[in-house]
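Journal club prep, shared notes

We agreed each person brings one worked example of a sequence with its structure written out as tokens. Mine is N-methylhydantoinase A protein. I'm keeping it raw so we can talk through how to read the token line rather than staring at a rendered picture. Sequence first:
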Amino acid sequence: MTLNHDDRSTKPQSNSQSAGELGVDTGGTFTDVIARENGALAVYKIASTPDAPEEAVIDGVRHFAGDAAADWRIVHGSTVATNAVLENNLARTAYIANTGFADVLTIGRQARRELYALEPAPNPVPVAPELCFEVDARLDAHGNSLVALDEAMCDALVDKLREAGVEAVAINLLFAFLNGDDEAAIESALRKALPDLAIARGSRVLPEYGEYERGIATWLNAALGPTVGGYLRRLESALERVAIMHGAAGTVGVDQAADNAVNLLLSGPAGGLLGARFVARSAGLDRVLTLDMGGTSSDVALVADELALTSKTRIAGYPVAVPMVDMHTIGAGGGSIAWLDAGGLLQVGPASAGAEPGPACYGKGGEQPTVTDAHVVLGRLPASTQLGGHMGLDVEAARRAVGRIAEPLDLSVEDAAAGILRIADEAMTGALRVISVARGESVADDSLLCFGGAGPLHACALAEGMGMKRVLIPVFAGVLSALGMLVARRSRERSLSILQPLADVDTDEIDAWLEPLREATRDELVEEGVAESDIEERLSADLRYAGQSASLNLAWREPAELVDAFHEAHAARYGHRFELPVELVNLRLHRAGPVPDVELPDIETGEGTPEAAETVAVHGLGDAVPVYDRDSLHAGQRFDGPAIVRETVTTTWIAPDWAAQVDTKGNLVLCQR
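Then the structure, token by token:
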């Protein structure tokens, strides 16, 4: 059979005996929906509604489910949290700290981003000084009380917060990761006196050492609470059964998601990595370098058997130390705007045309030249393309837009378009190097997996830039993040700071430390429908040499074995090892329900070269470049570049010297000839 990539008119056949599953990914330009019912997959792409993002989500769900959304399993990846941070659309939030530590978030780590700048730009101030409040209670470095918290202190805080008129409160006390009783007491007093406040406390959000990183995570969780919580409640009201993707590539219920808003950062991109791993496995690949290129940005990652997580993510300049998928993001997407700097040099991004008005070729009034417009000018996006199955291209508008920079550069429109693509390609190649080669990972023998609405147009150029010979353009490449939602497991991530020499730790202590975390995560997963017998666990440890500040995360094993493994990992990452004691910094617990039973169906087999739907002119390559409709391709068929493969959700450019083959699942495997 042929996989269906059709547009709005495409729906799986209904079945009165069972409902289906929906994966919904909201991007800056489009909201993607993928439906699975009776093994069949179908997609729908709709323009995002940035002012009210739930509207596009609800419309996309109802396209397939009609008024029966409650009967479908819906998993949603949202950009609401990320966009709120990037746009500084945060609630008015107070910060509560110990006496003398109210300015911790402003001081930060004093790590200079511009090491040699004589007048570096100041770091943003997360919480204004007038909203930072202190409490005289104090714990020592072992979590024991030095100055007890009393009722009068809590009453004073209530009065100050009421007068300040805040919407949210972040509580971050010293050593609360060892003993959270004082933070819990303050939270209880505030909830009793000011029940409408969104409240976050560090001992719950991130019970790890490092008051600055813990404080930032707690502040973000509180400041995002009203926006994210309101959005999720509106979704739940309209759709009822919704699971939310979190940044560590698992799902949580709406209640948990609303209470842990900071964990929703990178929600959508996490779905993309799950989808990439799922499709890579279907193609028999153990490790792939991924590029997810959407309308506003590109995300790159190195994906192996288990998705790598990191606690070193930075968003809008803030360190976000909660566990998230390990990826690198740059502001280069299909909607990235090309412009000339003060010296007359061509630049691309990070500003984007977004969903409204979008690139000029969308015909919605956009006038700025974008990466997508450059593809249209060069013919790599044929004039007959229907984006999302229902949006035509305005070629003349694209030429006018690119002409705005071609004229001052004294270039033809085509040469200016080619320059835009070269600059965008170099930016993305640099990002791919950051996540791989810069970490000592050779990827020459791996495959580059490109997806997103714009990614497959750049696949061959990026592979050549990385010295890679093989590219995988997955089935449903334009909506792979939505597909990743369907294969996401219910999961929880928890951490606990230990700060002890590894040689002094025994397994009985580990079990005792983890028992409260295991109980809490078990209860949460069971409440969301996971059978206790189906819960799987993975334990890892953050380790470092005594005296160091940076750590490496390794899978847990017996302490003696872990010491040797750490020495080897340190040598592999940094090129050397020390004969120093190894310290256990944090334990990290991952618990998850079963993997959803989703499989890609096989497509029909065929032979030889497929029949082209049309031939088009591509700049520099003549007027007879074949265009193939992906829905008409069959497993086993081969063809050489230059060629274009179009579908409703993305377009693939196959450069000269590259050849394509269709595998049994409908993936396109590109190899350099």
